Amino acid sequence: MHMEINKESDSRGALIVLEGLDRCGKTTQCSRLLSHLEELGHSVESWRFPDRNTGVGQMISSYLANKSHLDDHAIHLLFSANRWEKRSLMESKLRSKTTLIVDRYSFSGVAFSSAKGLDLEWCKAPEKGLLAPDLVLYLDISPEKAAERGGYGDERYEQLEFQKKVAQSYRTLCDSTWKIIDATRPVEDVEKQLKQIVMECVLTCQKGKPLSQ
Ligand code: DGP
Ligand code: NA
Ligand code: NA
What we know:
- Helices cover 47% and strands 12% of the residues.
- It is an alpha/beta fold.
């Protein structure tokens, strides 16, 4: 259950999250959405999690590159901490009317860790209190198709068998508020569909949809 933390009528930026398997096309779409909103004169930034630039982010990056090994619970909490360390900046950006297009958020945290077999509720707990997205766009592609796109790198999770488990976790997490986008369609078609949905959300937040956590 989300809790509202501002009054109706405060105009603000929108918190828009893109989720999906590795190689689903999120990063490309985030940058296209960013340019589109900029061209329309909106104040907008594109963010991503993990944010590898912080101290915690560097530990995550080293883990993903298989340069360090951490207990599954410990890395889960680091990913979550990486979102927590950006929370207050996130809130001030939104309140100062900047829209944030975010490449991965809490759902990645829960989907990837529960795919390893960690308890779902345990995985969700540290995410409680982070800002709730105004829109979750799920770029839907089968793990097999994503793998065919080529360019799984050599990071820890970029393996077909594991991605199949992640896809299953996302199916468990997904609810009726998510917009499921067919990510196997041509990039321009996906882009067009995303722009429409995003604009609607940006306008609703401009009009003063309450911020929740
Ligand atoms: P990306 O920079 O989007 O390619 O993400 C790096 C990898 O880390 C990718 O395989 C997805 C995974 N990931 C992203 N967020 C989380 C998280 O919060 N928890 C876990 N366990 N994995 C995550
Ligand atoms: Na990746
Ligand atoms: Na993350």
